Amino acid sequence: MQDGQVLYINPDGLPRNPAFTNVIVVTGQVKTIYIGGQDAVDASGTIVGKGDIKQQTEQVLANLQAALKAGGAELEHIVKWNVYVVQGQPLQPGFEVFQQVWGRRPNPPAISMMFVSGLANPDFLVEMDAIAVVPQEK
């Protein structure tokens, strides 16, 4: 590996899935961006999509993209997602939104998905945080 590289590894002995990468190794000169938990709240502070996990996932991903842009990164720089879904919510509508937003980008990030009993506001159905790595030029 050269300086400032991100290596995506799916080693033998671990399951392979096109939705995530098992191991990501970051070396060299990089900028790391940590994005705190994003909920379905727009810039005015209004909760978007009350009762609708699909609409909430759309807003969460829009918020993540705005945070990435502010840090000088794009979706493809994300190396780790954490997804928190309120217990009892269906996964498929949110997963479909994620697939549409992620598109055909290569090297999906490592992902952890957790069912939780609740989030900071009882109207929140999904929350995501992320870590992004941007290789730096010398």
Brief characterization of the structure:
The chain has one domain: 2-Layer Sandwich (60s Ribosomal Protein L30, Chain: A).
Task: Sum up the structure in keywords.
60s Ribosomal Protein L30, Chain: A, globular, alpha+beta
Strand proportion: 25-35%
CATH homologous superfamily classification:
RutC-like
Helix-strand makeup class: alpha+beta
CATH topology: 60s Ribosomal Protein L30, Chain: A
Notes on the structure:
The chain has 2 helices and 6 strands. It has 138 residues and is of the alpha+beta class. Helix 1 runs parallel beside helix 2. Helices cover 21% and strands 33% of the residues. It starts with a strand and ends with a strand. The protein has helices at 53-70, 92-102; strands spanning 5-9, 23-27, 30-38, 78-86, 110-116, 126-135. The strands form 2 sheets. It has a 4-stranded mixed beta sheet. The protein has one domain (5-135): 60s Ribosomal Protein L30, Chain: A (2-Layer Sandwich), CATH 3.30.1330.40.
